[in-house]
Amino acid sequence: MTAAPAMAPDTLLVAAFGTGASHGLYRWRFHGDVWAGNLLFTVSDLCALAAHPTLPVLYGVSGTDAGRVHAWRVSSADDQELGERDSGGALPAHVAID
Questions:
Q1: Per-residue model confidence as pLDDT tens digits over 10-32
Q2: How many Å apart are CA 92 and CA 84, to the nearest integer?
């Protein structure tokens, strides 16, 4: 097994809750004295994130009526959507990896 790569200390991954083209998964980086963010993936009602402990995978849940679980590989070189599935319940608000 390989450990998940640590995010640089000047980087944050943020879930922007809401609907529309400006909501979803953002990467924010600190440059000098300014934070700059960019949208990586558009996701409706993205409300929670969790990093896999050993794989370079980030999970998130959409708090929609149907509920969705999303998976991405997020790195400085290659951001990729890995897939999404039903969460098994409506309006999920948390995600955990065991």
A1: 888 999 998 888 899 999 999 88
A2: 14
| 19 closest CA partner among 42, 46, 48, 44 | 44
Strand partners, 68: 62, 86
What three-state secondary structure class fits 70? strand
Per-residue exposure over 39-53, b if at least 16 CB sit within 10 Å of its own CB, e if not? ebbebebbbbbebee
pLDDT band at 6 (very low <50, low <70, confident <90, very high): low
Residue listed under structure tokens 């934070």: 35
Structure-block tokens of residue 28: 């924010």
Task: Name residue, tokens 């409706």.
Answer: 44
